[in-house]
């Protein structure tokens, strides 16, 4: 286990567990320490030309350099945003407005930050939208992508690096190569992989990518957009000249400082975190399989080299327990995300599981882990679940 805000306490058997780190992660105390001076003494407006302002401006520019360095970009290619959603919107709207794109391609498995943005552009007549086919485990059909691109010039392609619900990793290297062959604009949502995998934009052929600090132990409400040098930009938010006239509004200074620190920590300890968290995931898989009959895993989430090591999407057998699954876990102090494939009434369910054709009769839970989780918490969470679904033979 890695040090946590309360890790000085002696290790007692857990009575609660947080396994919703794909939704958001706890702030790293070291990140908070880096942010605090910018909430207290360094309060100047970075656009002010006096000393108070200049000090804060320098901190923003240092953060930009740090992030650029960590993804092998140049500082001018980094724009600070309010998070992943804004970056996704920027890439899509920017491509339509500045790059003359008339056709867009995505997949039904994308996050709503991409899907709803492109659907809004389609609804308003800006683009014609096509979806790449995928199989029942969520693997994208890249031959179909190739065919779609061959049929449509001047296309915007948005395909994520890793799926936030089922954890599937997409081969963004190959997708970038296909897009480049057809001179398409390629955006990839790297919200779930930033800080968890090495990202080197010199190895990729993407025009845009996005990061969001709260997914790697940074603060909420801050992220960044990478826009490859030479790709034209028009602002989504109009006003002052901040962020080189691309994103108006006084900068979220302590957020930006925290974002850079969080990414720095994540990248410097990445291999250790990956090994540790993959161990937790393997333990989840082994224990769930041992304790519960007919357990399965949605997408490729149980396949080590094809899924995020932080995400495990569990498919539970048909049972009357499924209705109250999340509620029951919650009252037993286990925080997770759900999302059955059910799409009736007010329960709109998970669009990802629905697209995969998952059986609506089965329960679904996403366990998502971080460096702060422990094996004892895994055991605790499995025990709470097993109480509901224990094997008849056990
Ligand atoms: N894209 C993906 C894949 C995500 O998982 C999320 C958040 O869950 C977002 C975009 C939105 O990011 P933010 O919360 O920073 O707006």
UniProtKB/TrEMBL annotation:
Pfam families named among the record's database cross-references: Aminotran_5
Annotated keywords: Iron, Iron-sulfur, Metal-binding, Pyridoxal phosphate, Transferase
Presence of keyword Metal-binding: yes
Residues annotated as domain Aminotransferase class V: 18-379
Highest taxon, organism lineage: Bacteria
Catalytic reactions on record: (sulfur carrier)-H + L-cysteine = (sulfur carrier)-SH + L-alanine
InterPro entries: Aminotrans_V_dom, Cysteine_dSase, PyrdxlP-dep_Trfase, PyrdxlP-dep_Trfase_major, PyrdxlP-dep_Trfase_small
Keyword Iron-sulfur: yes
Cofactors required: pyridoxal 5'-phosphate
Recorded family membership: Belongs to the class-V pyridoxal-phosphate-dependent aminotransferase family. NifS/IscS subfamily.
PANTHER family: CYSTEINE DESULFURASE, CYSTEINE DESULFURYLASE FAMILY MEMBER
Name listed for the protein in its UniProt record: Cysteine desulfurase family protein
Species annotation: Hymenobacter algoricola
């Amino acid at each position: 286990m890695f040090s946590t805000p309360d890790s000085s306490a002696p290790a007692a058997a857990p009575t609660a567990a947080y396994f919703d780190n794909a939704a958001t992660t706890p702030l790293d105390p070291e990140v908070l320490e880096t942010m605090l001076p910018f909430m207290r003494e360094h309060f100047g407006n970075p656009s002010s030309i006096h000393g108070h302002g200049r000090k804060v401006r320098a901190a923003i520019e240092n953060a930009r350099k740090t992030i650029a360095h960590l993804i092998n970009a140049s500082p001018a290619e980094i724009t600070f945003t309010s998070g992943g959603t804004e970056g996704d919107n920027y890439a899509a709207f920017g491509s339509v407005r500045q790059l003359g794109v008339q056709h867009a391609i995505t997949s039904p498995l994308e996050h709503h930050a991409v899907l709803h943005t492109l659907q809004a552009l389609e609804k308003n007549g800006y683009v014609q939208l096509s979806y790449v086919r995928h199989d029942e485990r969520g693997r994208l059909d890249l031959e179909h992508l190739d065919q779609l691109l061959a049929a449509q010039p001047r296309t915007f392609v948005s395909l994520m690096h890793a799926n936030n619900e089922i954890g599937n990793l997409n081969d963004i290297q190959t997708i970038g190569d296909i897009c480049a062959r057809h001179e398409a604009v390629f955006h990839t949502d790297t919200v779930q992989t930033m800080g968890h995998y090495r990202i080197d934009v010199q190895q990729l052929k993407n025009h845009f990518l996005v990061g969001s600090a709260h997914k790697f132990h940074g603060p909420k409400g801050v992220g960044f957009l990478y826009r490859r040098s030479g790709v034209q930009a028009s602002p989504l938010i109009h006003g002052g000249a901040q962020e080189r006239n691309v994103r108006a509004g006084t900068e979220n200074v302590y957020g930006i400082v925290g974002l850079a620190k969080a990414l720095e920590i994540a990248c410097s300890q990445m291999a250790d975190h990956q090994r540790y968290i993959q161990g937790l995931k393997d333990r989840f898989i082994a224990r769930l399989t041992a304790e519960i009959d007919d357990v399965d895993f949605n997408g490729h989430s149980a396949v080590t080299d094809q899924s995020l090591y932080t995400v495990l999407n569990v498919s539970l057998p048909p049972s009357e327990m499924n209705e109250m699954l999340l509620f029951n876990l919650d009252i037993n102090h286990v925080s997770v995300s759900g999302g059955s494939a059910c799409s009736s009434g007010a329960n709109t369910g998970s669009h990802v599981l629905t697209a995969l054709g998952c059986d609506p009769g089965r329960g679904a839970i996403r366990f998502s882990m971080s460096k702060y989780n422990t094996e004892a918490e895994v055991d605790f969470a499995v025990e709470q679940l097993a109480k509901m679904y224990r094997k008849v033979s056990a």
